[in-house]
Amino acid sequence: MASLIELIGNTPMAELQKLNPNPNVRIFAKLEGNNPGGSVKDRTSLNMIRSAMERGEIKPGTKLVEATSGNTGIALAMISGLYNLEIELVMPANSTRERKVTMEAYGAKVTLLESIEVCRDYALEKGAQSGYFLLNQFANSDNYMAHYKTTGPEIWRDTAEKITHFVSAMGTTGTIMGCSRFFKEKNSAIEIIGCQPTEGSSIPGIRRWPPAYLPEIFEAERVDRVMDIAEEEAVQMARKLAKEEGIFAGMSSGGACAAAVKLANEIDQGTIVFITCDRGDRYLSSELFG
Description:
Number of helices: 8
Helix content: 25-40%
CATH architecture of the largest domain: 3-Layer(aba) Sandwich
Low-confidence stretches: none
Order of helices and strands: EEHEHEHEHEHEHEEHHE
Mean pLDDT: 95
Radius of gyration: 18 Å
CATH class of the largest domain: Alpha Beta
Shape: globular
Distance between the termini: 39 Å
CATH topology of the largest domain: Rossmann fold
Strand content: 15-25%
C-alpha cells in the first residue's frame, strides 16, 4: 500500500473526443486534479517542503508561510500537516470559500488580504521574521524542478515520446518552466505555449503580472509562444470540458484547453498536451458553473 505522498504524480491523460477540431491532431488533457490534494500544486508543494527539509532550512518547530491564490495553499496545508509543520497561508479575499475551508481543514492558518500582490508582500515580511520560513514559490527553483523531475517525464512516457506541443497556464510559471526544460532536452522542436489573460480579464490561476511581481523563476526564452485568453473563453471552455468531455476542471484549465483547441486549428498534425490544473469542485461557490 502506498502512502499519500507516494500517490502524488503519475496522473492520467485523457484524449479529447469532441472538442478537438482537427482529425490529424491529438489533444490530451493531463488530469492534475487526480492528485491527492486535487491539483498540480501537490507536486511543487511536496518538492519545496521536502527539498528544504533535506537542506536543513526547515527544522522541527519552523513555521512555514506562503502567499497563494488557492491550489498551492491547499497542497501546502496537506503536506505540511503530514510533516507536522505549522503553516500560515496568505490568500486574496476574493478566493472561493472552498479553498479557505479546505486549507483550514488540513490545519493551516489562513490570512485573507486584498490581492495576491499584497499577499506576497505580507509573506515576504513574515518570512523574514525569526522562526518562519518563506517557501516563495515565485522564486523557488524547487517549484519548477518538481515538473522537470515528474510532470515532463510522465507526459513524454505517456505520449510514447510523440508530444509536439505543450500548453500550460502561467501563474507562478513553475509548470511551464520545468516542463520546458525537460522537453527541450528531449526534442528541441517541441513547442512550448504559455497562456495569459487578455488585458482586463480575470482568470484564477493565470496571471498577467505587473513587471515588479513577475515570478523570478520565469525565463521568457523558455516559452516559444504566449497566447492571450479572454475570461469568457476560459469560462466557456471549462463548461464545455465538463459537459462534452466529462472533465470537471477550473477556469485556468478551460483557458489552457481553449489555447490547445486554437492551436489544433493552426497546425497540420501533431500531439498536443495541455495541463488541467485542478478539479471543478474548487469553484462551485463561484459563478463558473452557475
